[in-house]
Amino acid sequence: EGAYLTLNNSTFKNNTNAVYSYFGNSITITNSTFEDNSAINGATWTGGKSIIFIKDRYRPNSSSPVYEVSQVFMENVTIRGSTGDSNSYGIFIDGCNSTILNLNLVNNNLTALGLSQNVGSGKTTLINCYFNNNTYDIKTLYGPAAGPRPYINLISCVFNESGAFTYIDSRYQNAVWTVINSTFTNMKNNITFQGGDEYNGLGRGTII
Question: Is residue 191 within 8 Å of 163, Cβ to Cβ?
Fold first, then answer.
């Protein structure tokens, strides 16, 4: 609870899962490579089957409320050659305020990035990130179905010959997207930014 995790210049190769942070206060991963790992252990829909799993500590409705939102920073991280199943992720972030720069997600036989909002906390900003040949690139989910949507900012990102976006099921398809100066080439699936109103009915996605 409230721990600080920092990884720098690290390599994780041929592991089953790699990083697991639950209720951490600050998570920083930089200049690191995750190669040929498998995401086969953990809970199925909550994102526990992940190479990197990060769970927000924001819990305003618990018996011991926590109002701080976990902070995530990643830069110069590569995840490639990962294997899993339809419930597996390269990275899964549940809540949190996340800034991710120069992330490379390449040749992963799973969903590269899962983003969830359970209680209304957090936004995810990806800058200069590269997605290539993943089963899916981003999967969004949140709960309950009428709850707050994930906020996702894509800035100068490249998606090439990859799986595009999906959601856990039709109830959970709306996210709030801001897409700026990003490219999508030879995608394996149709790209749909299914933008919806926020939980409180304010705000919609933007594509520039």
Answer: no
